[in-house]
Write a structure and sequence with these properties.
about 280 residues; alpha/beta; 10 helices; binds zinc ion
Length: about 280
Amino acid sequence: MFDSRDDIDKLKNENEHLSAYYDMYFALREQQDICKESVQLPSFNDDEIKQKALEGGSVIENSGIDLSGLPEFFMEIFKVYAQFTTHNYDEVLAAVERLKPDLAEILEEFLFLKENVKMQAHISDSLPAEILVFLIKNTLTPLVEKYSECVLPSIDLDSWENGCCPVCGHPPGLAELRKTPSGRQRYMFCSLCHTSWPFQRLKCPFCEKVEEKETEYLSFPDEKNYRVDICNSCNSFIKTVINNSAELPPVLLDWSSQYVDDSAIQKGYKRVASM
Ligand SMILES: [Zn+2]
Ligand SMILES: [Zn+2]
C-alpha cells in the first residue's frame, strides 16, 4: 500500500526512471490531503441520492457544493506543478495570472460538465489544454473525492450500468480487471473523483456499444501490468490494469504508464480522459 514517504522511496528505487512522477504525485497529494480535511460538504438526503443515481444522473450536480475556496487552492496546485517543470515558467505564470479572474467559472464549468467556454478562451501555447486540465483536476480532487466518499454508501453500484461516473458524471480514465473468486471482474475509475465501479466486460464505456465477444485489446510483449481495450465503433480506448501487485493508486498507475497510451494513439485510437 502506498501512503507514506517510505513507500514512495521504495517505489523510486524499484523504478528509477519514474522518480519524477512519484515525487510530483506525493507533493500534490500532500496539499490535497490538507485541503480535503477542511472541505465542508452540504448535508444531503440519502433517498435523494439513491433516486438521482437510479435515474442515471450525476449526483454532484445541484448538490449545493461550495466551490468558493478553490481558486486559491488552484494557485497552490500550480506552485507544486511548477516545482517539477522547468519549461517556460515565466510564460506559464503570466498565462495563469491572466486566467485568475475567470478561475471560479472555469472550475465550475469543468466540474459540472458544462461547455468549457471560459477555459477554451485561456488555452494558449504557454498554457496548453492538457496542462490546464491537469491543474483543474488536481484542484478539484479534494472536494470531489470527499464528496464521493460521503455519498457512495447511498449508491447501488451494482445496478449502475453507465460508462460515466455515478458520482460526478465524468468519464473513466482507467479500467482494471480485478481477480475475484468468480473470475475477473472489470472496474472503471473516474477520471475526476477516482470513484471505481463495476462495469460489463463486453461494453465500451464511451459509446456503450456491446461486443459479442471479448472487446478487442492491444497487449504488449514486455508489459505484464497493462493492456489497452479499444473500441472500433467510436475509435476510443481505455487503458486497463491487469496486475496491480504494488497496489498503486489509480492516478499513479496512469501517470507511470504513458508509453502504453502512446502506442494506442499511434495506432489511431483516441484517449477520452486521463486520470
Ligand atoms: Zn467521478
Ligand atoms: Zn466505443
